[in-house]
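Bumping with the actual sequence this time:
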Amino acid sequence: MSQINAYRRKFMATLGGVAVGGLASSVILRTVQAGDVPAKPADQPVSNQVRWGMLIDVNRLTDGGASMVEACKREHGWGNDPKARPEQQAQWMRTVKVTDKLTKYSFTLPVMCQHCEEPPCVDVCPTGASMKRADGIVQVNKHICIGCRYCMMACPYKARSFVHESLTDQRPHSPRGIGTVESCNLCVHRVDQGQLPACVEAAPNAVIFGDLNDPNSRISQAMKALGGSQIRADLSLNTGVRYLGL
């Protein structure tokens, strides 16, 4: 417990400094307008000068990430497919409980697509439907997905779902369809408009979103000061989603 408290003190000290000062919701939104998440011009392609990423402090998630999951459901309309059996419900994001075998200390964290630099899902897709944008966002092109589910088998994070039944009441910005695969896309429709992903807005005191390629961005400064662990770092996938407190 003393190690946990020491970590929290370090994190709070950093919050008060230059690296990640002021993570309150209003500050984040002002930062977005100032350019941390600039809107992409509609007439310009995505650039690899930016790589979007997310840093999640699990010790500051008061609900283990449940509010992030609910925000994702509301934004994209998944998790309540009327005809799907419980085991077939879509799951773009989930909470996972982790217990240290030695100390028995437990905590819960949210797990979604990790937006890998070298995504295994993209490597195995026979049609190119699984794709990574130049800015690091991994997503599925619904128009050419044939539902083979190779990407689901290749993903080490179990971050993808298959749509088993016809859907109703879909979100215009987040098309879904029977016989296709889907997963977290970092709310690409919001990011392109200069907004934060829905899950980040739901946990403003625990999550930082920004440009991993910019050494002066809040997320880069936070990771420089505090680190940032990857799930399954041994796979060398260089994930865009990182965690503090693992």
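The tokens above came from a reply further down the thread. Residues 1-35 have pLDDT under 50 and may be disordered.
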